[in-house]
Write a structure and sequence with these properties.
single chain; about 170 residues; 4 helices; 8 strands
Length: about 170
């Protein structure tokens, strides 16, 4: 099992700092064909393990709270991945036009997918939102990264400490 925990940017809307993104798939946004006429995305989406995804999507008893007694949301979906540290709202919005189903993005997931592809069946990304890639990354950066990290870690601990979550598939002894 390969589990990548960490921090990510959110797309916005109802998302909040500390909400946790769960990868249904990882989309490489930088693999492209660029010509005079168009930019064509050529990357292949990496599909996360359905067993792990199921366990994270169906958490009902996670009792973790943030400041002001707010419970973080669990948001499964497509996660963008590339080498750019994005802190520009226009660039983020251009990505969401190309990938309208994406829930957020980060920088390491495509590496996990590439390393696991064909070798490790059970992998997933669990990353919590620390910013919105909107030019405000520096505001409360360390504070927001700590909130996000703790959310992702707590959710992973909750799922992997369940006595029933993986018993039927022999992923964990």
């Amino acid at each position: 099992v390969v589990l990548m925990m960490g921090i990510a940017f959110g797309i916005g809307g109802k998302q909040k700092i500390g909400d946790v993104l769960i990868s249904e798939s990882v989309l490489p946004y930088e693999i492209q064909r660029v010509s005079k006429l168009a930019v064509v995305q050529r990357g292949t989406a990496g599909m996360a393990c359905t067993t792990l995804l199921n366990r994270f999507k169906n958490v009902i008893d996670w009792d973790y709270t943030l400041a002001k007694k707010r419970k973080p949301s669990i948001i499964p979906g497509q996660i963008l991945s590339g080498e750019k540290l994005i802190d520009n709202k226009e660039f983020r919005e251009s990505l969401t036009e190309v990938f309208p189903l994406a829930k957020g993005g980060e920088m390491e997931g495509i590496g996990i997918f590439a390393a696991c592809d064909g070798k490790v069946k059970h992998w997933i990304l669990v990353k919590a939102i620390c910013d919105f890639a909107d030019g405000n990354k520096g505001k409360r950066k360390i504070h927001n990264q700590k909130i996000a990290s703790k959310s992702a870690i707590d959710l992973c601990c909750h799922v992997f400490n369940s006595p029933y979550a993986f018993k039927d598939v022999n992923l964990i002894p």
